Each structure stands twice: as structure tokens, then as C-alpha cells.
Amino acid sequence: MTTVQSMMLAVCFGAVVGTMIANVGFLIKCAIDSHKEKKRKRMEEQNNQ
Asked: So where does this one cross the membrane (predicted)?
């Protein structure tokens, strides 16, 4: 494998891994936000009753 091919492979692999890590982080953030929203709604319902 030439140097250019090796560098292209490293860049593509890095981009894919970086995207995957970002997607996992975004999913975790969305799950936390969803949980907080549900908890907030539950607390509002308890306070209104």
C-alpha cells in the first residue's frame, strides 16, 4: 500500500469512527433530555393535583 493510500484509509476510518462516536453521544444526550422532560412533567402533574 502506498503512502497516499494509507493516508486516505486513515482519514476515511477516522471520519467514520468520529461520526459513530458523535452519533452515540447525541443519542445519549437525547435520552437524558427525554428523561428530564418526563420527570419535569410528572412533577408538574403532582404539584397541580
From this structure: 6-32
3-state SS record for the chain: CCHHHHHHHHHHHHHHHHHHHHHHHHHHHHHHHHHHHHHHHHHHHHHHC
DSSP single-letter state for residue 1: -
pTM (2 d.p.): 0.72
Span 27-48, mean pLDDT? 93
Most distant CA pair in the chain, distance = 71
Question: Mean pLDDT, to the nearest integer, of 13-42?
Answer: 97
* 4-42 burial: b if 16+ Cβ within 10 Å, else e: eeeeeeeeeeeeeeeeeeeeeeeeeeeeeeeeeeeeeee
